[in-house]
Design brief:
Layout: E1 20-24, H1 30-42, E2 58-62, H2 73-76, E3 79-82, E4 89-92, H3 94-100, H4 112-121, H5 126-131, E5 135-137, E6 151-152
Parallel strand pairs: 1-2, 1-6, 2-5
Antiparallel strand pairs: 3-4
Length: 159
Protein backbone atom coordinates (compact mmCIF):
# COMPACT_ATOMS: atom_id res chain seq x y z
CA UNK A 1 0.00 0.00 0.00
CA UNK A 2 1.33 3.42 -0.94
CA UNK A 3 1.35 5.50 2.24
CA UNK A 4 2.44 8.65 0.43
CA UNK A 5 -1.02 9.03 -1.09
CA UNK A 6 -2.60 9.49 2.35
CA UNK A 7 -1.03 12.82 3.21
CA UNK A 8 -3.20 15.26 5.10
CA UNK A 9 -3.35 18.57 3.29
CA UNK A 10 -3.34 21.60 5.55
CA UNK A 11 -4.13 24.94 3.89
CA UNK A 12 -2.01 28.02 4.42
CA UNK A 13 -2.56 31.66 3.54
CA UNK A 14 -0.98 31.28 0.09
CA UNK A 15 -3.01 28.26 -1.01
CA UNK A 16 -6.46 29.56 -0.04
CA UNK A 17 -8.73 30.70 -2.88
CA UNK A 18 -11.13 33.40 -1.69
CA UNK A 19 -14.30 34.16 -3.65
CA UNK A 20 -16.93 36.90 -3.53
CA UNK A 21 -20.52 36.00 -2.64
CA UNK A 22 -23.64 38.16 -3.02
CA UNK A 23 -26.61 37.59 -0.68
CA UNK A 24 -30.00 39.30 -0.82
CA UNK A 25 -31.44 39.88 2.68
CA UNK A 26 -35.01 40.63 1.60
CA UNK A 27 -37.54 39.03 4.00
CA UNK A 28 -34.96 36.67 5.55
CA UNK A 29 -34.81 36.38 9.36
CA UNK A 30 -31.71 38.16 10.69
CA UNK A 31 -30.35 35.31 12.82
CA UNK A 32 -30.75 32.68 10.12
CA UNK A 33 -29.10 34.92 7.55
CA UNK A 34 -26.16 35.78 9.81
CA UNK A 35 -25.55 32.16 10.83
CA UNK A 36 -25.16 31.18 7.17
CA UNK A 37 -23.00 34.25 6.49
CA UNK A 38 -20.77 33.41 9.48
CA UNK A 39 -20.25 29.90 8.09
CA UNK A 40 -19.30 31.32 4.67
CA UNK A 41 -16.98 33.92 6.23
CA UNK A 42 -15.12 31.25 8.23
CA UNK A 43 -14.86 28.91 5.26
CA UNK A 44 -16.65 25.99 6.90
CA UNK A 45 -18.47 25.24 3.65
CA UNK A 46 -15.18 24.37 1.94
CA UNK A 47 -13.48 20.97 2.11
CA UNK A 48 -10.16 22.67 2.89
CA UNK A 49 -11.40 24.37 6.07
CA UNK A 50 -8.86 24.92 8.78
CA UNK A 51 -9.69 26.88 11.95
CA UNK A 52 -6.34 28.66 12.21
CA UNK A 53 -6.29 29.99 8.62
CA UNK A 54 -8.38 32.77 7.09
CA UNK A 55 -9.94 30.57 4.39
CA UNK A 56 -13.46 32.02 4.04
CA UNK A 57 -15.06 34.06 1.29
CA UNK A 58 -15.91 37.75 1.05
CA UNK A 59 -19.64 38.38 1.49
CA UNK A 60 -21.69 41.28 0.12
CA UNK A 61 -25.18 41.61 1.63
CA UNK A 62 -27.69 43.83 -0.18
CA UNK A 63 -31.18 45.07 0.82
CA UNK A 64 -30.24 45.00 4.50
CA UNK A 65 -33.09 47.35 5.43
CA UNK A 66 -35.59 44.67 4.35
CA UNK A 67 -34.33 42.00 6.78
CA UNK A 68 -37.00 40.37 8.94
CA UNK A 69 -37.17 40.17 12.71
CA UNK A 70 -40.01 38.08 14.10
CA UNK A 71 -42.30 39.18 16.90
CA UNK A 72 -41.40 42.36 18.77
CA UNK A 73 -37.64 41.83 18.49
CA UNK A 74 -37.17 44.97 16.40
CA UNK A 75 -38.15 47.19 19.33
CA UNK A 76 -37.87 44.98 22.43
CA UNK A 77 -34.51 43.23 22.02
CA UNK A 78 -31.74 45.05 23.90
CA UNK A 79 -28.03 45.08 23.11
CA UNK A 80 -25.76 46.42 25.86
CA UNK A 81 -22.60 48.49 25.50
CA UNK A 82 -20.32 49.59 28.29
CA UNK A 83 -18.08 52.62 27.84
CA UNK A 84 -15.81 51.74 30.74
CA UNK A 85 -16.89 54.70 32.86
CA UNK A 86 -19.27 54.64 35.84
CA UNK A 87 -22.83 54.92 34.57
CA UNK A 88 -21.61 54.16 31.05
CA UNK A 89 -23.89 51.25 30.24
CA UNK A 90 -25.77 51.98 27.01
CA UNK A 91 -28.82 50.17 25.69
CA UNK A 92 -29.42 49.79 21.96
CA UNK A 93 -32.27 48.13 20.09
CA UNK A 94 -32.22 46.77 16.53
CA UNK A 95 -34.43 49.72 15.58
CA UNK A 96 -31.77 52.21 16.73
CA UNK A 97 -28.97 50.25 15.03
CA UNK A 98 -30.97 50.17 11.78
CA UNK A 99 -31.40 53.96 11.92
CA UNK A 100 -27.64 54.35 12.50
CA UNK A 101 -26.98 52.38 9.31
CA UNK A 102 -28.49 55.26 7.27
CA UNK A 103 -26.02 57.74 8.81
CA UNK A 104 -24.03 59.33 5.98
CA UNK A 105 -20.93 59.61 8.19
CA UNK A 106 -20.73 55.85 8.64
CA UNK A 107 -18.26 54.09 6.36
CA UNK A 108 -20.04 52.36 3.44
CA UNK A 109 -20.49 48.65 3.96
CA UNK A 110 -20.51 48.92 7.75
CA UNK A 111 -23.99 48.12 9.03
CA UNK A 112 -24.07 48.26 12.87
CA UNK A 113 -26.87 45.71 13.32
CA UNK A 114 -25.37 43.05 11.05
CA UNK A 115 -21.85 43.56 12.40
CA UNK A 116 -23.09 43.22 15.98
CA UNK A 117 -24.91 39.96 15.23
CA UNK A 118 -22.08 38.51 13.12
CA UNK A 119 -19.43 39.41 15.70
CA UNK A 120 -21.21 37.22 18.22
CA UNK A 121 -21.10 34.25 15.83
CA UNK A 122 -17.38 34.47 15.03
CA UNK A 123 -14.37 33.49 17.16
CA UNK A 124 -13.36 36.01 19.81
CA UNK A 125 -9.71 36.33 18.78
CA UNK A 126 -7.43 37.86 16.16
CA UNK A 127 -8.73 35.79 13.29
CA UNK A 128 -12.33 36.60 14.21
CA UNK A 129 -11.60 40.31 13.92
CA UNK A 130 -9.94 39.79 10.52
CA UNK A 131 -12.87 37.69 9.30
CA UNK A 132 -15.32 40.47 10.17
CA UNK A 133 -13.52 42.76 7.70
CA UNK A 134 -14.66 40.49 4.83
CA UNK A 135 -18.37 41.30 5.14
CA UNK A 136 -19.91 44.31 3.37
CA UNK A 137 -23.54 45.20 4.10
CA UNK A 138 -25.57 47.72 2.09
CA UNK A 139 -29.12 48.97 2.68
CA UNK A 140 -30.05 49.24 -0.99
CA UNK A 141 -29.79 46.90 -3.96
CA UNK A 142 -26.62 48.54 -5.31
CA UNK A 143 -23.06 47.99 -4.10
CA UNK A 144 -19.58 49.09 -5.23
CA UNK A 145 -18.18 45.54 -5.57
CA UNK A 146 -19.30 44.80 -9.13
CA UNK A 147 -15.67 44.57 -10.28
CA UNK A 148 -15.15 41.48 -8.09
CA UNK A 149 -18.05 39.72 -9.90
CA UNK A 150 -19.72 38.29 -6.78
CA UNK A 151 -21.58 35.03 -7.20
CA UNK A 152 -25.23 35.38 -6.11
CA UNK A 153 -26.42 32.58 -3.84
CA UNK A 154 -29.75 31.79 -2.21
CA UNK A 155 -29.23 31.10 1.49
CA UNK A 156 -32.46 29.12 1.73
CA UNK A 157 -30.82 26.36 -0.33
CA UNK A 158 -27.70 26.20 1.85
CA UNK A 159 -27.47 24.18 5.04
Amino acid sequence: MDTLSYKTISPNAQSVQSEWVLIDATDVPLGRLCSVVAKILRGKHKPTYSPHVLCGDNVVIINAEKVALTGKKFTDRIYLNFTGYPGGQRELTPEVLMKKSFNKHLRPGMHPLFLRVLKGMLPKNRIGRRILENVHVYNGPSHPHEAQAPKAIDINKLK
